[in-house]
Amino acid sequence: MSGWAVRVLLIEDEKEIAEFYKDALLEEREFAFQVKHAETLEKGLELLEKGPIDVVLSDLTLSDSRGIETFFRIHERHCRIPVVLLTGLSDGVIALEAVRRGAQDYLIKGEVDGKVLSRVLRYAIERQRIQEELRRQAQIIAQIHDAVICADLEGNITDWNGGAEKLFGYARAEVLGRHLSGLYPDHQRETVEHSVIPKLKEEGAKAFEVVMNRKWGEPFYAHLSLSLLKDEKGHPTGMAGYAVDISDRKRAEKSKDDFVGIVSHELRGPLSVIRESVSQVLDGLYGPVSERQAKTLRMNLGSIDRLGRIVDDLLDVAKLEAGEMNLRKGKTDLVSLVDDLAEHFSPQLERKGIEMKISASDPAVEIVADRDKLIQVFSNLIGNAIKFSDGRTISVSIRDGEGEVICSVSDTGRGIDKAELERVFEKFRRIPNETERREKGTGLGLAICKGIVDAHGGRIWAESRLNEGTKFIFSLPKTSADLPVTRGMG
Description:
- By secondary structure, the chain is α/β, with parallel strands linked by helices.
- It is built from 15 helices and 17 strands.
- It folds into four domains: 6-140, Response regulator (Rossmann fold); 146-245, Beta-Lactamase (2-Layer Sandwich), CATH 3.30.450.20; 253-322; 330-477, 2-Layer Sandwich (Heat Shock Protein 90), CATH 3.30.565.
- 45% of the residues lie in helices and 23% in strands.
- A five-stranded parallel sheet has the order 2-1-3-4-5, with helices on both faces. It has a five-stranded antiparallel sheet with strand order 7-6-10-9-8, sandwiched between helices. A five-stranded mixed sheet has the order 12-14-15-17-16.
């Protein structure tokens, strides 16, 4: 505040005391003060109306007003201006009550000097500013229809708006001081205390879908966004959460997933019959087939196989969404797995003139995993690299690390735009480019890769630069327990 003068209204009917305080402020060198003086409360209120005033310094006992009523008359008409009261020793109890009712501070006459007076007035202005900001924020939070929850760094609830009362069923007074974990089902509370909150402190923000509980025990799906609150110096002061009920959306997703699963399952049988029938005709079991007929039949077989792969993808997604993908784990050598896939993809690689380079940290890199599911992951990633690559090289890397194995598949193609890169693992998400228009896909392959890697307890991510290429990287623990798959993948 040293860059501007603090505008003080001094209301004091004793001339000598008024002159003392006025001189003390004007002689203050560190901060500049401008002082207006009024001998009565009525005159002081008139000066307040004319403004501007930053802080009021008023005696409690004036010729036209006495006691706490003096403060009330100032505060009722100018509640946003901080008030510091002057009092004698006998009026200390009244002054303290005035502070409880909204005054910023009080001073006992004859016990302060210029520096103390300067500090008290400046602090009063700053406290008033902070209180106004807190009131403004509280009004905004109260008017938000969705649930807003504030907590301290330990996770104890410090504030709770009307939206939260409506969503959870608890009145604000019922939850203040309670821990956030109490809003979750019993089996999730330890995770909230020992995983979610520590991770929020580390990352600063976190958004996820989670099951929470209403007051009467009813579980519901919520989208929860958590942020770490910080002071002006960047030090954490608390947490804020924003919760939205997404139960209706989840029910709709489940209905859709159930429908996809049922339809996909029902398609498998007829497709198998159709493929077998076409194969028998093509093999000449029902008589000779001309070259023209054979060409048409081979095209039909190709289309049937493509439809079969789509059905398989849909079924895989349905299983992952329902958490029903069973992993048949055993010792798996990733190097030999990729070598076998290189043979499988060799016709496509030769046709497009692409070389596939395989590098490994050791001749054999073993983990405990479902070999067939990992073949599916590598096949999807290598197939995408071939499909979308405009370059001449695809690289597959397998690196043995401490407790985990890091694998990657990279190409030297056009790359993926940053905005698209963040969404590549979403279901039905297809990367828009010229190659995609020529070779359409379902947009399920990467979502399935993520689901399989997640089910193994690993993680998968992508890195890319336009016109330089794309790399998909995933890590897998060398040994892992079966993990539940979270619904809503991708």
